[in-house]
Every structure is written in C-alpha cells, then in structure tokens.
Specification:
12 strands, about 15% strand, alpha/beta, about 375 residues, 5-stranded mixed β-sheet, 14 helices
C-alpha cells in the first residue's frame, strides 16, 4: 500500500477522491482509465508487467477501486465483485465448511437470507437467527460450530442498530468472525473494522455508486491471512467487478461524503414529519431519540443515513396505496441513489423472507431518501399520505 492509501493523516473526504486514483503515467489523465481488456502482453514467459496477466485475476481499474475501498474502511485489502451477493457468496465459501454454523440477524436484506436459507444450507452449513441489537441474544445463539456472526447495521428494512463493538467482543470470545454489512451506513458514516469487525460487506450498487447506474459488491478486511484467502477465492470463483463497473463505483465514491450529508439531512426532516403524521403508527429511523438504537447509533455513526421506514395505521393496503400515490419518490427496489425511492418491502425486496423469522410487517413502507429538495420530498409524501 502507498502512503496515500494507508495514511491516517488525511480526512475521509480526501481519501475518497485520491486513494487509488493515481494519475495515468502515460498521459497524466487525473481519472484512472477504464482498462477494458481481458489479457496483457507479458515480458517473456512468466514475466508479468505490473502483475497483470488476465482480468479475472486483476485489472488496473478494479485495483484502483479496491485500494480506494480499503482506505475508506481502514482495512488492509479491498475486493470488488460483480454484485453484493457475489461478494457475500465468496466470503461465505471462504469462511465456512460443511457442518459449520452462522448466526444471522432477525432483520436483513432478503437476498442475504435467501443465500443462507436456499443456497448455503444445501452444502451443510447451518444458521440460526438472533436479535443482533442484543449482545446477550447473540451469545445465546452461538454453538461450538459457529464460525461467523453476520450483522447489518442499520438493518434492512427495519433500521435496527447493532452495537458493533459489543458483538465483536462476543464473536471474538467464541472464536467466530464478525461480518458487518455496512451498505446502509457507508464508510463515511460508520467504519466497522475500527469497532472490531473482521470483514465489511458492501453492495456498492447503493450509496458507494450512488447514481443507480451500476451493480457491484465489495469486501474489506484488515486480516492479512484472511485477505489472501479471499483473493484466492475471488479469482477461483470469478464473480469480479468488470472494469467499467469498477470505474463507475470509483467515480461515485468521490462524492460520497457530500451525498451522505444531504441524504441524512433530508431523511431527518422526513422522519420528523412522519412522526407527527396522523396516518403513521411508527417511524423507524435511528436519528429519532425514541428509536431503541438511537444512543448506540449516535456513538458509532457520524450521522444517521438516508433510509427511513414507517408503518401505516390503516394496514397493508394503505401502505401499498402510499407507494402507488407517490410521484417524486419513484416506486422501485434498491436504494442509495441520488433520486428518492419508495417501496413495499413485504411484496418487493423482502418477499423471500415471507413465513420466516425475518418476515417484515405488511403495513411497512421503506424510503430511500435522495438528495433532491427536502421541501419537495416532504410535499410528495404528504400528498401520498393524504
């Protein structure tokens, strides 16, 4: 790693723009080129120029992104993948063997649950559910075969908060790895490795890319031995980020700090409005003082992010109606883009958890609050709730 990528002397906003972003030595271009190439001319048999031989194994554009990711999360190594689930799959097949056990959260992305319940379980890995906001509940869920504890904080879609440092201690005592999905917070708001996490997971599709124009995933770890294992599996399994996708995520990250500030500001205003609205029974946003995880979130996050969920007093059909009546909020899955999105988790992103311990309430609406005018967003929600 260069001094630029590892230095603690430079602020996040500076690292986001400069880490991994070395000027092109040939032309001086300040933006790393898109190396849209599959193979590389070698300097004699076995003589790799710059360490590159085949773009599944390594690609200069992907390398730039991976160095940037590692710097922002405070890790030794970052790895970029074709999607968030590809990153998760690589991690699980690196950490686990048949007969192992994983503790998963009682609120999580539906795709993550599907990966555990329908894919990983087929090759002999067992899992159990715990409320990760309660370190004692995590401890009670551990078995002698537990190799990993999986956490989302804030969680998707109920915005639960886990005390990363407390759960890290529980996992470490049991000899298990702590994995933290940091997608909702982004490294600008929260850095799990500094709090004791072994691995950080991202869907870079979301806030890291930030513009709803790319699909990607990432892993970051500070464990050198684990990093080498992950690199081996990344190459062996092959679900890597393509160069153009890596370039798009790297471009998005440059404005991550300023975007997250606006996301958080708008989300706070919306959460306050929803709290006072007569049609709303509950608002789930860690920035609210009444949120069960507010104190922990205030301790481990810089701000509270752009995701807000709320429940309707009139029930599920009312929730669906609000989603359909929104105009500025686009009805769609995913999150973290500059534009605001609205969805019904029970019928959309979290349909895969129906009937499980992770099933979400039917009266729940999830918002990904964008960076548009806060006044316009409030007006749209008010008309949708009317």
């Amino acid at each position: 790693m260069t001094h630029e990528q590892s230095s603690n002397e430079r602020a996040f906003e500076t690292l986001a723009i400069h880490a991994g972003n070395t000027a092109d030595p040939l032309t001086g271009a300040v933006v790393p080129p898109i190396y849209q190439v599959s193979t590389y001319k070698q300097d004699g048999v076995g003589g790799l120029r710059g360490g590159y031989e085949y773009s599944r194994s390594a690609n200069p554009t992907r390398t730039a992104l991976e160095e940037n990711l590692a710097a922002l999360e405070g890790g030794r190594r970052g790895l970029a993948f074709a999607s968030g689930l590809a990153a998760e799959d690589c991690l699980l097949r690196t950490l686990l063997s048949p007969g192992d056990h994983v503790v998963i959260p009682n609120d999580a992305y539906g795709g993550t649950f599907r990966l555990f319940a329908k894919v990983v379980s087929r090759w002999g890995v067992e899992w159990s559910v715990a409320d990760t906001s309660d370190a004692a509940a995590v401890r009670a869920a551990l078995t002698p075969r537990t190799k990993a504890v999986w956490v989302e904080t804030p969680s998707n879609p109920l915005l639960g908060i886990t005390d990363i440092a407390a759960v890290a201690e529980v996992a470490r005592t049991a000899g298990a790895r702590l994995v933290v999905d940091n997608t909702f917070a982004s490294p600008y708001l929260q850095q799990p490795i500094a709090l004791g996490a072994d691995v950080v997971v991202h869907s870079t599709t979301k806030y890291m890319g930030g513009h709803s124009d790319v699909v990607g995933g990432a892993l970051v770890t500070d464990d050198a031995a684990l990093a080498e294992e992950l690199v081996f599996h990344q190459n062996a399994m092959g679900a890597v980020a393509g160069p153009f996708d890596a370039w798009l995520v790297l471009r998005g990250i440059k404005t991550l700090a300023v975007r997250m500030d606006r996301h958080s500001e708008n989300a706070t205003r919306i959460a306050d409005m929803l709290t006072a609205h007569p049609a709303v029974s509950q608002v789930l946003y860690p920035g609210l003082p009444e949120h069960a995880g507010h104190e922990v979130a205030a301790k481990q996050m810089k701000a509270f992010g752009g995701m807000v969920s709320f429940r309707l007093k009139a029930g599920e059909e009312a929730a669906v109606d609000v989603c359909n009546r929104a105009q500025l909020f686009t009805l769609g899955e995913s999150l973290g883009g500059v534009e605001s999105l609205i969805e019904h988790p029970g019928r959309m992103t979290h349909a895969s958890v129906a009937g499980s311990a992770l099933e979400v309430p039917g009266d729940l609406v999830r918002l990904s609050v964008g960076i548009e005018s806060g006044d316009d967003l409030l007006a749209d929600l008010k008309q949708a709730l009317a």
